[in-house]
Write a structure and sequence with these properties.
Blueprint: H1 3-8, H2 10-39, H3 56-72, H4 78-104, H5 116-121, H6 133-147, H7 154-179, H8 190-205, H9 213-218, H10 222-249, H11 253-308
Helix pairs in contact: 2-3, 2-8, 3-4, 3-6, 3-8, 4-6, 6-7, 6-8, 7-8, 7-10, 10-11
């Protein structure tokens, strides 16, 4: 699907608004996090007390990437494209600085630029108010994709196609790790992980003229594919959420795993069966409608001969 065709189809506007809604959610999460650090309300910097806090720099970097995607969504002017690319490039440079700090095991002073008093209250094992190494690397990949998202050269499309899904792998693994209690894999706050997933989704939706969104829009069975993907992706997430619920209730570790897997499988199976039955009903209705239209066309074509006879 080329750009002209994508801009003229109704899905283009709808996907653009969905991308902007995802960016707005990221800005809200970042604003709440920064407000929590500024006011000392720690509940705004995490979801559960046992989970890591979202560092202020992570909120700043993600908010900057959200703004970069927002100004380049829809039909941006060349000025908006340059602004968005510049903001994304600056965000990537900051991510490289944080990665260099971890590699050299020293601080370059950025930790004390934001909320220096809050840094002194954190434990020694916490990496200041910097984003974690995995979060910084994910931000770097996403900043590269956002910086070249409006370039139509072959290398830019290749970088966009590679960096955008790669940036989603780390936060998705982090979500599953936190839901299933894999403590060694958890070094990001849950709001930070959710924000990264939303930013990757908004980056995809902001360019509906590129694959995989263009490929999906061109298929007549796109709704079926979306439903199938949602069901497959929803099973582990639902099982992980049920596991947390059962642990909160007080079930033993072994029991909660069995129950969460059983209940999650039943729920996802019921949803899949509902969508399958609905799809079959639509197919039958379409076949009946096509058969009725064929009969009408045959009668209309032979009406003159019947009257003459």
């Amino acid at each position: 699907m080329d750009r002209t065709r994508a801009a003229g189809c109704p899905e283009f506007t709808v996907l653009t608004w969905w991308a902007r809604a995802a960016v707005l959610a990221v800005l809200v999460l970042a604003g709440l996090n920064l407000a929590g650090w500024a006011t000392g309300i720690e509940a705004l910097t995490w979801v559960l007390p046992s989970w890591p806090q979202m560092p202020p720099w992570a909120a700043v970097l993600q908010a900057a990437l959200g703004v970069a995607i927002l100004v380049q969504s829809g039909r941006p002017s060349p000025t908006r494209v340059w602004v968005g690319s510049g903001v994304a490039t600056a965000t990537g440079v900051l991510a490289v600085v944080f990665l260099a700090e971890y590699a050299t095991n020293r601080s370059f002073g950025l930790d004390h630029v934001l909320f220096s008093e809050a840094v002194r209250t954190l434990p020694d094992t916490w990496p200041g108010i910097r984003p974690s190494p995995t979060a910084s690397f994910s931000v770097l990949l996403l900043s590269i994709a956002v910086a070249v998202m409006r370039l139509d050269r072959r290398w830019a499309r290749a970088m966009w196609s590679l960096c955008l899904p790669a940036a989603a792998v780390i936060p998705l693994v982090g979500i599953l790790a936190e839901l299933f209690g894999a403590a060694p894999l958890v070094d990001q706050a849950f709001p930070s992980v959710v924000s990264m997933v939303l930013l990757v989704a908004s980056g995809l939706l902001a360019r509906p003229d590129r694959n995989p969104v263009a490929w999906l829009l061109a298929r007549p069975d796109r709704m079926t594919l979306i439903q199938m993907f949602a069901i497959l992706a929803g099973l582990p997430i639902l099982v992980g959420l049920l596991r947390l619920v059962f642990l909160t209730v007080g079930l033993s570790p072994g029991t909660e795993r069995v129950l969460s897997l059983a209940v999650g499988t039943v729920v996802v199976g019921a949803v899949a069966f509902y969508f399958f039955q609905r799809q079959q009903r639509l197919l039958i209705e379409n076949e009946q409608r096509a058969e009725a239209e064929l009969r009408y066309s045959i009668l209309a074509e032979n009406a003159v001969d019947i009257i003459a006879h």
